[in-house]
Design a protein that fits this description.
The structure holds 2 protein chains of 2 kinds. By secondary structure, chain A is largely without helices or strands. Chain A is 14% helix and 3% strand. Chain A has a two-stranded antiparallel ribbon with strand order 1-2. Chain B folds into 5 domains: 35 residues, no CATH class; 44 residues, Single Sheet (N-terminal domain of TfIIb), CATH 2.20.25; 245 residues, Rossmann fold (3-Layer(aba) Sandwich); 223 residues, 3-Layer(aba) Sandwich (Dimethylsulfoxide Reductase, domain 2); 92 residues, Barwin-like endoglucanases (Beta Barrel), CATH 2.40.40.20. In chain B, strand 9, helix 10 and strand 10 form a beta-alpha-beta unit. Classes of the chains: A little secondary structure, B alpha/beta.
């Protein structure tokens, strides 16, 4: 039996978000009823995004931090299930693929537990006032309504875009409508800096 | 309640405008939602909205570069610094969760004084600093410089360590300055000093890309130095012939990835290393030309009765053994190694003869690069310096040293164990840049740089760390200032150091959170942590790394160096710190840097450190050094090729191979206490846990200490996983939950307990035995029994 993930109190957003959280917080796979944000059916985007943010916030310290492991301990061979494309285990759920560039042999990413740890306990040692970076998943900006959105997060160690943006684990609001176009970086670019271009020598 | 930030506002405006333009139909619903999201998530920022600054990681000695994302005066995120040559963007779970370390609700924010009723009361900084100055002055005047002390840290920045050194040695004329790093890498210091007359490794992390065989001597790198271990795994992936050899007393996460696992009995690594040396000599796999040109032979006191263990009889109060080095020859070495035949070594160590021969073949194979790595397993050893000597002997006798991919490489456990403790010299007998207080020329040089009268610096070494706390308990030490460390969790045999109320001692503790150490303090000072102040660390590969202050500390917290300078000023020692109050870091660094210029300990300039991801000393003409003592790499080596051990003047510019015998451990399991106890760290919790336990993800991953048992032992005892058992040693007892077949698997007859948990103090049980030369305690082996509860 897979335990649901740890559910501490709301992360301090508006009230309606915490209500939603309860539904969405169930980890992928342990809920028989698909949560709204993962269902194919229409879900108001605001709800989906808000709930997703909370689920994300519970599984990681801040956007960019490695998520904790929300399921029971299953040994060290993580890549048996978390393959390049992921695996569906009947009603148990979907083991999403890794966003890291994978290699045929063990390498830098061979030791998953170096960065991903189990959330074993519900209690805290002491409370924390840490305010995480927690971004709106729809932050990818479009120049025009038909322009490809920019990437709202760093690409480093998230080179396998399909891991999160396609397949059953992809939340609706970030699901790619055209997974067949495999070179994502051709159209979607990261935002490294918010500033506008200015000429170094503006004398002329 | 929430304001739309400007960019959100522009985005919403933009999409609305686009909709109005009629490029696509934009439904009313969607517009409302977009506005709703923006309004409900006002602090929803993108990484590009944050201000990113650079810093080294706060935890271990690897020295990973991180980028710190700041918004509105708070650290909201970190990411691995892709520009850092150390980690190239990768971190471990502790590094990824750095920000949470700053924001525990119980951060110390104000100076607090303990009254006679034991209660803490907030006082002003002025009152606190006056009180420290008065107490230290009183102790100096009534009981002399031996009765005051400062116990600092390998987590001190260079500024903190240098301020403490100057105040203690140049101001108070005492040498009672010790770091927690005495418990951590003192054996490595004495290893390098006895062999090269200069501290710190010759290699650098590039060894992980050039080496073929990585031999880990009691070093669980997968958990303790994960990013370095990743570099080894990546080397294996890219170069399939590369191998990891794990020499250990229990199976760990490192063993899971090792090509060969060699299990030896606790303490028998001394015999094992001699057994490898024996085979190298017997099979003539030594580099005769290298030895002739670059090596001398030495031996010291070997009589176990004269040396002792530092914890029995008179030595249990004062351990002051000093080695008596004498010259030896290669023939002496051969005769000495007669005792260490593979069969004899196998009997002592439990290692099969075939494995000893394989290890000798690896060290003796001149076609492959060999990197020996070690950390606490070798350093926290009753003969830690000897073990350091023996491992380096293996490299000297084969000439596999100061070459890319072939080096003896000691790794440190704290971020500035090298940068501050070893290089600044915050030890009871040291001064900056390899100098010691017992050498009149060294004292004179320090006095000249500091502008102090001749004879200011006390030539008598102070207490080493364990003796310092023994002296405190006896009452010989009256006033002690502890900064950035937690000795009431980390000292061995903790029962010895219990405080009694009204004992007449004065203990100040500077820290960022309450700990068992602040619990016994008379005065608690709130410290600024990590990027709340400007600082420099130095990592295991001689890389000095600088960072700027990125946020304000909470409340009235102040950096350690500032605290020391203010007290020094109140004691009439302000002349030691003549720099302006608002700009003292750079001039202080440049003064400190002048100690090492021109003698092979050249640090980079402060400006250069500021603009780079750290520089490996010696830095000459703005260029860092990858391989010390190596021609073509080290600017101090004038030869066209080969090596030159130019710091070892007393050995004729040669390195020393030391003859070091096997001695049995001080306490061996017997009928009453039949199990070995080993202690150490885990990946998620760092040291005494005062920082990492305040991070939700790290705490929840490993919330409390446990005891690892071998499954067969557990069955024999009739206990299973998660049962409670009581561990009892001759010194103390502790009740812990059982873990079986977890990440660590001790062999039969031994157990392992992590030391981070202040509610489960395993150091109540450990033995305060020490390395005879470095005086570093051995936390890795003592005897316990297990009782069912």
């Amino acid at each position: 039996m897979i335990r649901p993930p740890v559910l501490p109190g709301p992360v301090g957003r508006d009230g309606f978000l915490s209500l939603l959280g309860v539904v969405v917080l169930l980890l992928p796979g342990c809920d028989k009823q698909p949560s709204p944000s993962r269902s194919a059916g229409p879900v108001p985007a605001a709800q989906a995004t808000a709930g997703w943010s909370q689920a994300r916030a519970l599984r990681r310290a801040f956007d960019g931090a490695p998520p904790v492991i929300p399921h029971m301990k299953m040994g060290a061979n993580c890549t048996a299930c978390h393959t390049q494309v992921g695996i569906q285990f009947g009603e148990m759920g979907f083991a999403p693929p890794m966003p890291h560039t994978t290699a045929p042999n063990p390498g830098v990413f061979a030791r998953c537990e170096q960065c991903h740890v189990y959330a074993d306990e519900k209690t805290l040692f002491v409370d924390s006032g840490f305010q995480p970076l927690c971004q709106d998943l729809r932050k990818g900006r479009r120049a025009t309504e038909i322009s490809p959105p920019t990437m709202p997060h760093a690409v480093f160690m998230r080179e396998n875009c399909a891991a999160c943006h396609t397949g059953p684990a992809a939340r609706e609001e970030i699901r790619c409508p055209h997974p067949e176009r495999i070179r994502c970086g051709q159209c979607h670019v990261p935002v490294i800096d918010n500033s506008d271009f200015s000429r170094a020598n503006n004398a002329s | 309640m929430h304001q739309l930030d400007r960019r959100d506002f522009l985005t919403v405006l933009g999409t609305t405008a686009a909709g109005a333009y009629g490029i696509t139909a934009f439904s009313c619903d969607q517009k409302q939602e977009a506005a709703h999201i923006a309004a409900s998530q006002p602090d929803s920022l993108s990484p590009s909205d944050l201000n990113w600054g650079k810093a080294p990681c706060r935890y271990c000695g690897t020295g990973c570069g991180v980028e710190v994302g700041v918004h509105d005066g708070k650290v909201m995120a970190v990411r691995g610094d892709v520009a850092s040559p150390v980690n190239r963007g990768l971190l471990c779970v502790k590094g990824y969760h750095l920000p949470g370390m700053l924001y525990g609700h119980d951060r110390l924010q104000y100076p607090m004084r303990r009254g006679s009723d034991g209660k803490l009361t907030r006082i002003s900084w002025d009152a606190a600093l006056d009180l420290i100055a008065a107490k230290f002055k009183e102790a100096l005047e009534t009981t002399g410089p031996d009765s005051v002390g400062v116990y600092g840290s390998g987590q001190w920045t260079i500024f903190d360590g240098y301020a403490a050194l100057k105040w203690v040695k140049g101001g108070m004329k005492s040498n009672n300055l010790e770091p927690n790093a005495r418990l951590c890498m003192a054996s490595a210091v004495m290893g390098f000093v006895t062999q090269f007359q200069s501290d710190e490794p010759m290699g650098c992390y590039d060894d992980f890309e050039f080496g073929d065989d990585f031999i880990l001597w009691g070093h669980n790198a997968a958990e303790m130095h994960p990013v370095l271990f990743s570099r080894m795994l990546e080397r294996k992936r890219q170069s399939p012939g590369a191998r990891i050899i794990d020499l250990a007393t229990r199976r760990t996460s490192t063993s899971d990835y090792a090509d060969m696992y060699v299990e030896f009995k606790p303490g028998s690594d001394l015999a094992l290393a001699n057994g490898i040396l024996h085979l190298l000599c017997r099979k003539n796999k030594i580099d005769t030309a290298f030895i002739k040109e670059n090596v001398v032979f030495k031996r010291g006191e070997e009589d176990i009765d004269k040396i002792g263990y530092g914890c029995f009889g008179d030595q249990a109060e004062h351990y002051t053994f000093a080695d008596t080095p004498r010259d030896a020859t290669y023939d002496d070495l051969l005769a000495f190694l007669d005792d260490y035949t593979p069969e004899a070594v196998s009997k002592i160590s439990g290692v099969p003869v075939a494995q000893i021969e394989t290890l000798a073949d690896i060290y003796g194979d001149q076609t492959r690069g060999t990197v020996s790595l070690w950390c606490m397993g070798v350093n926290q050893h009753y003969r830690g310096t000897w073990m350091n000597n023996l491992i380096t002997d293996l490299h000297l006798i084969t000439g596999k040293i100061s070459k890319p991919g072939s080096n003896p490489f000691s790794i440190t456990g704290q971020p500035a164990a090298c940068g501050t403790v070893r290089e600044v010299g915050t030890l009871n007998n040291r001064l900056p840049a390899d100098m010691v207080v017992t050498n009149p020329e060294h004292r004179a040089k320090a006095e000249k740089i500091w502008g102090l009268p001749d004879g200011t610096i006390n030539p008598k070494p102070g207490y080493h760390a364990v003796d310092m706390f023994r002296a405190l308990t006896r009452g010989d030490l009256k006033a002690l200032w502890i900064q950035t460390t937690n000795p009431w969790v980390t000292l061995p045999n903790l029962n010895r150091f219990k405080r009694t109320p009204g004992d007449g001692r004065f203990i100040v503790v500077s820290d960022i959170y309450p700990t068992p150490t602040t619990d016994v303090a008379d005065l608690i000072l709130p410290a600024a942590a990590w990027v709340e102040r400007e600082g420099c660390f130095g990592n295991s590969e001689r890389r000095t790394q600088q960072w700027d202050k990125l946020i304000d500390p909470p409340g009235e917290a102040k950096e350690d160096a500032w605290q020391i300078i203010q007290v020094a000023k109140r004691m009439g020692m302000g002349h030691l710190f003549p720099w302006p109050e608002d700009d003292w870091h750079k001039p202080m660094f440049e003064e400190y840097r002048s100690f090492g210029l021109g003698i092979g300990k050249d640090l980079a300039s402060y400006d250069q450190l500021r603009s780079t991801r750290g520089m490996k000393w010696p830095v000459v003409d703005g260029k860092e050094t990858d391989y010390r003592y190596a021609a073509g790499h080290d600017p101090y080596v004038k030869k066209a090729k080969g090596v030159h051990f130019y710091k070892a003047h007393e050995y004729g510019d040669k390195a020393a191979i030391w003859l070091r015998p096997y001695h049995p451990p001080p306490e061996i399991p017997d009928k009453d206490y039949p199990f070995w106890l080993c202690t150490g760290r885990v990946l998620e919790q760092w040291h005494s846990g005062s920082m990492t336990r305040r991070v939700k993800q790290l705490h929840q991953a490993v919330p409390s200490a446990y005891v690892e048992l071998n499954r067969a032992d557990a069955m024999e005892l009739g206990v299973k996983a998660r049962d409670w058992v009581k561990l009892v040693s001759r010194r103390g007892e502790l009740t812990l939950r059982v873990a079986i077949d977890g990440r660590g698997k001790p062999p039969r007859g031994s157990v392992f307990v992590p030391f981070f948990d202040e509610a489960k103090l395993i150091n109540l049980l450990t033995l305060d035995t020490m390395c005879n030369i470095s005086k570093q305690p051995d936390y890795k082996k003592c005897a316990v029994r297990i009782e069912r509860t």
